[in-house]
Design brief:
- A hairpin with a 2-residue loop joins strand 9 and strand 10.
- The chain is of the alpha/beta class.
- The mean pLDDT is 81.
- The chain has a six-stranded mixed β-sheet with strand order 6-7-8-3-9-10, sandwiched between helices. Strands 2-1-4-5 form a four-stranded antiparallel β-sheet.
- It has a single domain, classed as P-loop containing nucleotide triphosphate hydrolases (Rossmann fold, 3-Layer(aba) Sandwich).
- The protein has six helices and ten strands; from the N terminus they run βββαββαβαααβαβββ.
- Helix 3 packs across helix 4 and helix 3 runs parallel beside helix 5.
Length: 219
């Protein structure tokens, strides 16, 4: 599905370079469930952002579904992101001024899906996450259960081929966290590729663990 080759990411600080990622090479097959682990500051979130087309490396190559995405124009990269990638952040990244329904519907509007089809897709996913009747509520963090469900609905409604999750259970209690991970497991069994960043010392989910240390893959 995707291949990273000799990826470097750095920031210039005066005359010096501060490296975030150093010579990362990684191949991910369709249908894998990968957990990226490592201490704080090891480059996990930056790597996820590069994979998710939210950040660009300074050096290296990145192929996604046989496309050299770093050579594509921004518009084409944006289309790939909207069509194929679902991103689940630890922070909710919802729009407070929009209702649960409107937040979930937003990715579909960007894909120019017709109104009737959008309504059907939103209704289906509201039912799946058992928040029917709350769609007109505003998705404020105070309503954590609804907010969490809304956040996941919005990431998954486009039926992404790849889900990227940055510490998806970090703001949840153990029951909510287990429910999210079981959902990821179910989606992976349906063929969705999942890459998650986790700070947990033990990882019960995933078929492969990638350890990062000081911006490098630690073998």
């Amino acid at each position: 599905m995707l291949s990273l080759k000799n990826i470097f990411k750095w920031y210039n600080t005066g005359i010096n370079r501060t490296f975030i990622l150093k010579d990362i090479s990684l191949d991910v097959a369709a249908g894998e469930f990968i957990s990226i682990m490592g201490p704080s500051g090891s480059g996990k979130s930056t790597l996820l952002n590069v994979i998710g087309l939210l950040d660009e490396p300074n050096e290296g190559e990145y192929f996604f579904m046989d496309e050299n995405v770093l050579a594509l124009k921004e518009k084409k990269r944006s289309e790939i992101f909207k069509t194929h990638i679902g991103f689940v952040f630890q922070a909710y990244h919802l729009i407070d001024e929009l209702t649960v329904y409107e937040n979930i519907e937003t990715p579909l509007i960007y894909q120019n899906i017709k109104t009737a089809e959008r309504k059907s897709m939103v209704a289906d996913i509201l039912d799946r996450f058992q928040i029917v009747g709350k769609e007109r509520s505003f998705s404020q963090p105070a309503f954590r259960g609804t907010t969490t469900a809304c956040w996941n609905c919005r990431a998954l409604i486009v039926h992404p081929k790849l889900i990227l999750a940055d510490e998806p259970t970090g703001n949840l209690n153990s029951k909510q966290g287990a429910e999210i991970m079981e959902l990821f497991k179910e989606l992976n069994q349906e063929g969705v590729t999942i890459i998650q960043v986790t700070f947990r010392k033990k990882c019960e989910y995933g078929s492969r663990i990638i350890q990062l240390l000081d911006g490098r893959i630690d073998n």
